[in-house]
Amino acid sequence: MKVLPEQKTAPFETQAPVVMDCKLDKIFYGNFMAVRDSHVPIEKNKITGFIGPSGCGKSTVLRSLNRMNDLVRGFRFEGHVHFLGQDVYGKGVDPVVVRRYIGMVFQQPNPFSMSIFDNVAFGLRLNRYKGDLGDRVKHALQGAALWDEVKDKLKVSGLSLSGGQQQRLCIARAIATEPKVLLLDEPCSALDPIATRRVEELMVELKKDYTIALVTHNMQQAIRVADTTAFFSVDISQGTRTGYLVEMGPTTQIFDSPREQMTGDYISGKFS
Amino acid sequence: MMRDLTSRTDPVPSLQRKFEGRALRSLVLTTLVWGGALLASVPLISVLYMLITRGGARLSLEVFTELPPTGFETGGGFGNAMAGTFVMVGIAAAIAVPVGIMAAIFLAELGPDSKLANATRFAAKILTGLPSILAGVFAYALVVITTGTYSAPAGGVALAVLMLPIVVLTAEESMKMVPKIMKDAAYGMGCTRTQVIWKIVLPTGMPAILTGVMLAIARAAGETAPLLFTALFSNYWLYHEGNLALMNPTASLSVLIYNFSGMPFDNQLELAWAASLVLVLIVLFVNIVSRIFGKPKF
Prior knowledge:
The complex is a heterodimer. Chain A is α/β, with parallel strands linked by helices. In chain A, 33% of the residues lie in helices and 26% in strands. The two termini of chain A are 28 Å apart. In chain B, a hairpin with a 2-residue loop joins strand 1 (239-240) and strand 2. The chains are: A alpha/beta, B mainly alpha.
């Protein structure tokens, strides 16, 4: 086996406290190595954007952070994900518990086929929340900038909302239980530009209270909302497609003065 | 500048409909499928017509409350047969629905590609085509011989054998229809697999599961052959002389129709028609209920 090229650039120097220190040495699906040698620290109350060409493993990385990939057969992880000092992949860690602290919003809006209220209350009931359910649901819907649109129809099906509203409902559902970190996996890719803008504004609003990791295929979106950007690319030198972190830094630096040739080529549109 | 279309030198194509070969073919095929649709509805409509005209006349409160008449008796009804059908279908549902749904959960969620799942699915598909009389033979060997008597539970077991594969296969399909992204959302919230099944998969698939259950019940209610070997028939109420005689031969609507339709007495023949109408109405009712339940709440 050939020696893999080393990561040449200096690792990203963090300024704010790191909530998740993710060292992804190798991620496998069966025999297929999807991601290698990527060290991604995620800072508190910031939006960390993951960009890169399709197939570069940015979604795989994101889904590894709350162990969603454990549901995929053949998934194997080498490295560590330190969440507030504990390794998410450590011995005796229950992935189910991990996911309660690290929430996730998916590409396709996926509300449950229940009322709007029940959708948001789902996680609270799951955690046997003892306080005033109505209060927390209202708070979460307000947090997701959806309250004014749905306050008169909380008993209506979540699936009756428009795509953008459904996605904000999913965000409300995710923040109702007040997780520490929100993982957003291309949350706007199924939305129209107006709905996208609303969700982007919401993300910026949410980072006051949450730490956010955002996968996006839209570089403009990364520029608009991400504080820090991680650029991933695909290595095809081994005959398969393995994603790896090329460079990570403040968003302005990545887009204005990338240190790597490949980053520059990607953001100027030479490949996608 | 735009050219005026009419002043162009090349000819303007006609947009008028022309009668050609493909139009004729289209007409013939349309007529054929219309005819097919009509033909398909003829049996149901004519059977309903027959049942209503010949069985409707005899319908009265009396037929629901009285016991079947013997020989040259006049009057009478099939109250005990209706009760027997309900009890046996109830027993069958009590066996087939929980077992079937549990099996479906395994097939759809726990081990969809496992050897056991493939074997179960194959067995269920074979079982749907099982001649119903064999279900009767099976229950005869399993229940009638071991208990030494024809009985309602024996009939229930035979009907359960027929219901089980329908419940398993429709419930599996219903659960597979639950979108994966919905399950992902639940896992993402921190649900265990049990919670995902219990809180998301079952409630979301429930309308479709109930439809399958209702169809299975409708099928079981109309079966005759499996009951001939297992419940036989009885001229008495299940509940008589102060105790519930479950472990005795039990009447059912379908066997009553079978028995009475071969008799040389007009009274019994009329009752057979009336019982047929009632049986069809029960099946119809169950189907309508399944449609109401089958509509997703959200």
